[in-house]
Amino acid sequence: MKTIKDSVHDHIRIDGVARDLLDTPAVQRLRRIRQLGTVSLVYPSANHTRFEHSLGVYHLACEALADLGVDGRQAEHVHAAALLHDVGHGPFSHNLEALTYRRTGRYHDDVHGLLVDGDVGDVLRDHDLDPGRVADLVAGKGRFGQLVSGELDVDRMDYLVRDAHHTGVPYGTIDHGRLVRELAFVDDELVLAEGNVQAAESLLVARALMNPTVYSHSVARISKAMLRRAAERLLDAPKTSVDADTLQRMDDHDLIATLRSSEATSEFSRRLDQRALYKRAVWAEIDDVPGGIIEAEHEAVREFEREIAADADVDPECVILDVPGRPSMTESTTRVMVNGDVRRLGQQSPLVEALRAAQYSQWRLGVYSPPELRDRIGRTAVDVLGLDIEGTLVSEVRDGLDTTLDQFVD
Amino acid sequence: MKTIKDSVHDHIRIDGVARDLLDTPAVQRLRRIRQLGTVSLVYPSANHTRFEHSLGVYHLACEALADLGVDGRQAEHVHAAALLHDVGHGPFSHNLEALTYRRTGRYHDDVHGLLVDGDVGDVLRDHDLDPGRVADLVAGKGRFGQLVSGELDVDRMDYLVRDAHHTGVPYGTIDHGRLVRELAFVDDELVLAEGNVQAAESLLVARALMNPTVYSHSVARISKAMLRRAAERLLDAPKTSVDADTLQRMDDHDLIATLRSSEATSEFSRRLDQRALYKRAVWAEIDDVPGGIIEAEHEAVREFEREIAADADVDPECVILDVPGRPSMTESTTRVMVNGDVRRLGQQSPLVEALRAAQYSQWRLGVYSPPELRDRIGRTAVDVLGLDIEGTLVSEVRDGLDTTLDQFVD
Amino acid sequence: MKTIKDSVHDHIRIDGVARDLLDTPAVQRLRRIRQLGTVSLVYPSANHTRFEHSLGVYHLACEALADLGVDGRQAEHVHAAALLHDVGHGPFSHNLEALTYRRTGRYHDDVHGLLVDGDVGDVLRDHDLDPGRVADLVAGKGRFGQLVSGELDVDRMDYLVRDAHHTGVPYGTIDHGRLVRELAFVDDELVLAEGNVQAAESLLVARALMNPTVYSHSVARISKAMLRRAAERLLDAPKTSVDADTLQRMDDHDLIATLRSSEATSEFSRRLDQRALYKRAVWAEIDDVPGGIIEAEHEAVREFEREIAADADVDPECVILDVPGRPSMTESTTRVMVNGDVRRLGQQSPLVEALRAAQYSQWRLGVYSPPELRDRIGRTAVDVLGLDIEGTLVSEVRDGLDTTLDQFVD
Amino acid sequence: MKTIKDSVHDHIRIDGVARDLLDTPAVQRLRRIRQLGTVSLVYPSANHTRFEHSLGVYHLACEALADLGVDGRQAEHVHAAALLHDVGHGPFSHNLEALTYRRTGRYHDDVHGLLVDGDVGDVLRDHDLDPGRVADLVAGKGRFGQLVSGELDVDRMDYLVRDAHHTGVPYGTIDHGRLVRELAFVDDELVLAEGNVQAAESLLVARALMNPTVYSHSVARISKAMLRRAAERLLDAPKTSVDADTLQRMDDHDLIATLRSSEATSEFSRRLDQRALYKRAVWAEIDDVPGGIIEAEHEAVREFEREIAADADVDPECVILDVPGRPSMTESTTRVMVNGDVRRLGQQSPLVEALRAAQYSQWRLGVYSPPELRDRIGRTAVDVLGLDIEGTLVSEVRDGLDTTLDQFVD
Q1: What residue spans define the domains of chain D?
Q2: How large is the ipTM?
Q3: Measuring CA to CA, which of A283, B6, B100, C228 is 20 to 30 A from D66?
Q4: Nearest to D198 among C193, C196, C212 (CB)
Q5: For range C364-375, the mean pLDDT
Q6: Which CATH number does the domain B2-181 belong to among 2.40.10.270, 3.40.630.30, 1.10.3210.10, 3.10.20.320?
Q7: Per CATH, which fold does C278-326+363-410 belong to?
Q8: Which of A174, A205, A400 sits opposite B205 (nearest CB)?
Q9: pTM strictly above 0.90
Q10: Does A169 touch chain D (CB under 8 A)?
Q11: Which residues cross the membrane (chains A, B, C, D) (predicted)?
């Protein structure tokens, strides 16, 4: 048995199949993928990686299974899935996932290919485990898939606490020890045992507060959008040797080095390295945005960008339109026991609806540009997109608008 | 200047009037008043006192004032108020406040008498401060009274973090450093500066989650109700030498010793010492309780108790009826800047309404009794109080009902 | 199984005999005995109790035994001993132990009487455990006694971390998770496994730094000496109803209330309550103290006090002579594996000798008195005790002398 | 003013020259240099960077100066030096410093060139500061140079706490708040004020325990030696375009990408990426190593390696000889006030000598090789180096030998 020291869970013991999986290149690669991508440009301490997170998820899965009385091959399948659940991530984690999905059709949790072939598959089979079944667990399928990927998964429990620890933002500090111990199965559904409505709510609230403060902080969104644009240029450059599959298999070092050395992307790369970021030219609330735009496909978004650039008479690379999807709140289906019945949290807790409403009020469409073009591009974008002008032009309202205090907000 | 080491804020520097106030008996007495009263019967580490909390509030007040650019005598008045804001507490802090209020007409923040006379008044006057003005600040009056006692006061910021630290329940872990730095005055109203809607919500949520988990944990409520009953017996005992004013001036040691030695209270005292607590015979939701009962005055409640005891044919001391007030949420009036306007949080954030609704769903009327009489008293109480029977008798539903996992819940 | 939330170890699970022992008056009483006695007069957050410490020791014992592969009745005996190891403590923990030992012949770990009779004995026997064997374990006897009370016991591992957490002084923050996991038995001796010399040293160093900063802080020593003097007066008062056995069975509340109400002790009690402490009139290094004094018996020390008082013409109660024992360092016999051999740490690590020397240089004889008599009593004491005058009179040298920065040092 | 959230110091406020320096490429580059180089291969959470450390050092310098009453241009020079003190670091911080020093003659704190020219120099001059004077402070020169680089510098105070936070090893958790507040100048020498002998010792002990556990952990040493070898091959490869100056200016991404793509280094790179590390073939104590070897110059060491490889008949790249310098302990000259005199800690505290002795007993010469050649190379190396055979061949003694428990030790 190995013991690994972790800054969040202290000592993590690694045994069985996990011990052997640890030495595979696929798992070691996660050391070089930052958990939060460009968020470290906002919170400088947030340099933690998918590797330590994967160890943490493995650790919590072991605790949960021990409490549930699950062991043997059943448990080993889940242990493997917990440790491997993020091997499908590309560089900068979620930052480029939309891009690679468009080109490859695969999200990061589609890991069948990665688990069946190669070293990982060999290790799994050596331990008498079925790679396909492990991949299904990673995809959230089956009874125990809920523990790896679902509303009450240990993935979320680890990342909230870990992101809080490394950013310094306390909102994610949930009581994971309690949550893990209170899991139970009722009719094959993973639920929180009686008396845990507040514990379920605390998980929901932690996400709801971490989201605008950390994950969707405006500077994180801007830098992510710039990285995404750079990666897209890389894939589309003439004579490029990088396709989406190659990109997906890179680690952070590969991607950064490639962006630096490619002519099509070196300027974005320089800006990211020097934190010479674009700024918000437009920052529009959901009610000010015409209906079709939120649902626009990627190509339509690109077309808007080109149109804004043309009308404003600037280089198309100076305009980035960032349209988040419509807010969703999957936790509403979290199941909790109340008075002996399984209830959905959305039924039980008025918080679910309120947090959904809060998400709507926090939603923003952004148009980003080099600082010196902010005004011109902002005005043009309002016209082109047909935004309700009130309150959407950042240059016209107070600069502090919806920013969080810390972290270099411009 | 003195420096004091605090487990929450690390080093606290004490200077000026605060340094001299520290040595007064009124402030030193706070070392012997537990911050959370009987909560330590649920969370064994929660033995922190009003003294360390008062130091913490003083510390945060100093930081806030420095950031607001306030100094001189203005600041010294606030420093004094912060350090003195809890000198009016009786033993076990809030646990007996309703009782002493009924008899003395004073809540703990009515400190005029304590500040004007005696050592404290002398120290204040020696520093050229006005005791009456300090007392007004403690009562939340005036511009800076909002900082000492109001929706955005530093009192709350300290106790949430401190109670989280000492109970081990993380929900109270707010970002007090940020909150303190983001305070501002707009037209004499204390507000959170632009971009702090989530920060304001986090404060609200922290209270909303700490409340059922810590402050109103069922075992904390039961033990508090037993203590309150014992104290009432003490005051009402024939030949007692203890009146409400004397009680109010006791510290925890005095009260415990007195309860132990008085015949009228020694049994309650034994039960509290040995944690041989009453248990819930009834635990009824707000919709199951006839309207009048929630608003019943203390004497009416006592009359219900006597009636239940008579009908169940048990000693009246075996029945405790615990009816919390109707939920309120003062934070709804917290003021935050949004797009350059001062808005009330209740206007801005859907969370406020949701948390209010959650409070309603968490509200419970309790009837407590010795374990062996639970069933008999429970049934009788349902009849006497006219409760909607469904789900109110603890003995008939799952025992885990609304309990939190940890902490000796019976 | 119960789960208890602890501010140090988070969730502690209580099962088997421990669960039933928890409800005994002897264990519940520990809630009312402060872990560090008067240290809270220096570090205001240090209000933790023997109860939470006992839970922590039980928790670490469970972890150690599970790692060592020990279970069944063997383990249950140790679990019981861990939870019960401090039931023999009197009020204020170690503060009065020398006094009660002189009168009763029992130290706090002599618990045979407490464990065999009464509720505790009944619970042990109900679980088919032998009270005598549990008491032996508490006294450090036998193979597993080393785990409860010895150089590598879990008692020390808990209190160092817990005292650091509650005082805010980080020196005690050892890696208890590692220490517990690295324990092993070699020929019935408890040792630290290969590769843990630094871990063993860290335990030693933690104690060596916590000692002068916390446990023997000058203000803690002064207040402890005052408490001890008051307790002795209480026992010796004419018409007192308190003997040493009664004293030993009190909790903190009892003792404080008794000291307040007894004429012989009310002045000391007032001083402790108001933190109107004596101050150092003399503070002498070991080399400045004539040999015989360090080894003087209690009566000889009292005689010195009376002589100083007479010569200085002050009330005898104004002079307290505080002579610590000669430094010892039991950890020197800690056993660690090095290159396959069991070695004593004192053999292996040069730190042991150095820390012993440091203890000698930190040793101080103190004479304490009311502030206004400090000068007169200091000079007289130097004469009476035959101290080498250089550097021993506090009033003549810099006041900061050997104090730690924080904490009200006078 | 900007506020940045830091996981160690919470909120760090950046003002004046520091605010403008933050945006220079030289400072932003530090985001991409890991603080502890390859230590993350042992402690997976240790991914923190020189950037956040530099912010922390700046923060502590601000606090220390404020306490010392220093402001104005004097303070601004020190603020700049604190923020810039690490801009001279090459990729992987200290890991390659010996190599680049041999080729460039510059250590990382020789920053005159970097500060005078370019953006940094411009910013400094814009703020009316002298770049040369800032560079002198970084080099530890002058009165305030002691605060930036000396026995009591804020650099050390930050990195100990930060490394503890990110590795999870608690030994570095010093009381930096106290140390910073207790600094004073006596005759232009930086000292710790009266009563801080233990505080000074705690700093010493923290380093002494972090060193073997973290900084010189055997796996950290092996991976660092492999990286150093790879970098040397890179510089010496025929047709290479990388010289030592170029290498020094790279960030971690550059170096990793270059090592991957160069034929001469791709195998080392693969091994580091996959954590397929060399293992210890020899691990010899200082007394077993012939005198001359410890002082051997780099070329002599390389010659030994070649000789071992030749005798063992293996590829020269399979042998790495790692000879640490003779232990030193600069803290022995730390100055503390004792009884009104300035004393050197080495004079005052027996711990200094003991820790020096401990360093000697921890010193190890290592010979590293691919696992399958371990035995053959180990035996040959013993012969070639003339080691006293006893206990130096890792393959012949217990594998646990001197390892720390955690962290993948092989």
Answers
A1: 2-168, 278-326+363-410
A2: 0.94
A3: B6
A4: C212
A5: 95
A6: 1.10.3210.10
A7: Alpha-Beta Plaits (3.30.70)
A8: A205
A9: yes
A10: yes
A11: none
